[in-house]
Amino acid sequence: MVMKIVLVAAVVMALGHVTGQRCMTRDQRNEYRELVTMASCVKPKPSLVQLPVPEGFDYVTPSAVTLHQCTGLSCSAFPERCLPMPGQTQNRTYKVYASSRNGIKPVCAKVRVQEHLGCVCRCDERACPSNRVFNRETCECECNPYLETRCKNRRDVYGEEVMWSSKFCSCECDKFEECDSTTVWDPNLCQCAPMF
What we know:
Elements: H1 2-18, H2 26-39, E1 45-50, E2 59-61, E3 64-69, E4 81-84, E5 89-99, E6 107-116, E7 119-122, E8 132-135, E9 140-143, H3 145-156, E10 162-165, E11 170-173, E12 183-186, E13 191-194
Antiparallel strand pairs: 1-3, 2-5, 4-7, 5-6, 8-9, 10-11, 12-13
Helix pairs in contact: 1-2
């Protein structure tokens, strides 16, 4: 990790020499190196973490605590993110006053949040929604090819008036109709269907 930081700093200094002039003064370079070191994904830093609100309540007091987190730290390889190392988290439990806006007396409740013990730069596979799959090479969520094939079959094989949307990773109807009061639009059938 230290090698990555040194590499980033060396690239920035080299950029100044390419143009025949220095981009930064010595003090500015030192300040930059310090900032890179502070923001690098080496170890968790104290961060303000929002406490979860128990179901049925509107807010908690206190609403946040300071915990060590990997969030906000930088990685030199795009699109990796600074995330907690597997097995390097610890659950913390806090007592809070859970309140509602309806005037009911606050209730003492326990909430749990995660503290990070170690950080690593990697892709976050868990961030993909159900209609997308994770591509390890690009470190991104992409449209599920099975859903795209299924949509194209609906059009080509069954003659349905649908089209694949790469933007939304879903099968969309070619047209939309206003339904009367006894029916509702069914996006799977691409037509108005009776209400149940």
